[in-house]
Amino acid sequence: MMDLSICYRTLGFKHSPFTITPDTELFFPSKNHVIALSHMQYSLTSGGFTLITGEVGLGKTLLCRELLRKCDKNIRTAYIFNPLQTINDLLRAIHFDLTGKKPQARTTAQLHDAIYKALLIIASRGERAAIIIDEAHRLNPELLEALRLISNIETEKEKLLSLILVGQPELSKILSSVEMRPLAQRISVRYVLQPLNFKATRQYIRHRLKLCSIKQDDFYFSTSALLLAYWYSRGAPRRINQICDRALLAAFANERHFVSMFTLRKAAREVLY
């Protein structure tokens, strides 16, 4: 089996420009993503609750990681990217991320108390705390209720915690239920992440090519290939990456330093059908 890194270097890249692994070094600041990020950053500093939703493959996880990368040092964060846990496991994960220590508590009540004490210590240092839940649509009502109880923690002067929920559109439906109304009413900012339009898709592809190129502008996608990339991907970054990565490997096989319309169409059909 051929080492793919050789393929990319032969084409003039340090590594794949279109890896599907969320990489903050390749973050593309589209208008939608910048707005979503600004809402999340505001939540971190204001102590508010924010809900970010979007379809599969629109870059929500990368958005969370970019938020963490840009986060101020005086903000302690708990980033939960696998919410399919028991209540106690979730509370332990939150406590560990906020403090760097495993809690000695065993029961749910004890874990709540440990988190409360940790938040008081964080606040006494002049710092803020935030919980960021990725894939939040996978949280069951019991876990959402646990988050609501944590979010109630406050002093006489201020809220001690910010909460950011990030997930697929069904998360909004879950939160609209009668049972979730107490939590939903706490959400001050809601934003729906949209797919990239054609202009942004074209910029996205060129942005990644430029960042990963050993020699600037040595490899390119034809204008018609860029148009087809948008048409087949519908502006979803994950799908753009999958299609474009396949197209790069096809260009390597054909000993070409560009992606044509025909190469892109063939790659898209291989990926999608």
List its salient traits.
2 domains; five-stranded parallel sheet; two-stranded parallel ribbon; Helicase, Ruva Protein, domain 3; 7 strands
Secondary-structure map:
Blueprint: H1 4-10, H2 31-46, E1 49-53, H3 60-70, E2 75-80, H4 87-99, H5 108-124, E3 128-133, H6 141-151, E4 162-167, H7 170-175, H8 181-184, E5 187-192, H9 198-212, E6 220-221, H10 223-233, H11 237-253, E7 258-259, H12 261-272
Parallel strand pairs: 1-4, 1-5, 2-3, 3-4, 6-7
Q: Which sequence of strands runs across the widest sheet?
A: 2-3-4-1-5
Helical residues, percent: 40-55%
User: Could you say how many structural domains there are in total?
Assistant: 2
- N-to-C span: 24 Å
Q: Write down how many β-strands occur, each being a DSSP E stretch of 2 or more residues.
A: 7
Q: What count of helical segments does DSSP give? A: 12
Shape verdict = elongated
H/E order of the elements?
A: HHEHEHHEHEHHEHEHHEH
Structural class: alpha/beta
Explain this structure.
With 273 residues, the protein is α/β, with parallel strands linked by helices. It has two domains: 4-17 and 196-272, Helicase, Ruva Protein, domain 3 (Orthogonal Bundle); 31-192, P-loop containing nucleotide triphosphate hydrolases (Rossmann fold, 3-Layer(aba) Sandwich). The chain is 51% helix and 12% strand. It contains twelve helices and seven strands. It has helices at 4-10, 31-46, 60-70, 87-99, 108-124, 141-151, 170-175, 181-184, 198-212, 223-233, 237-253, 261-272, and strands at residues 49-53, 75-80, 128-133, 162-167, 187-192, 220-221, 258-259. It has a five-stranded parallel beta sheet with strand order 2-3-4-1-5, with helices on both faces. Strands 6-7 form a two-stranded parallel ribbon. α6 links the parallel β3 and β4. α4 runs parallel beside α5 (108-124), α9 (198-212) crosses α10 and α10 runs parallel beside α12 (261-272). The longest helix has 17 residues, at 108-124. It starts with a helix and ends with a helix.
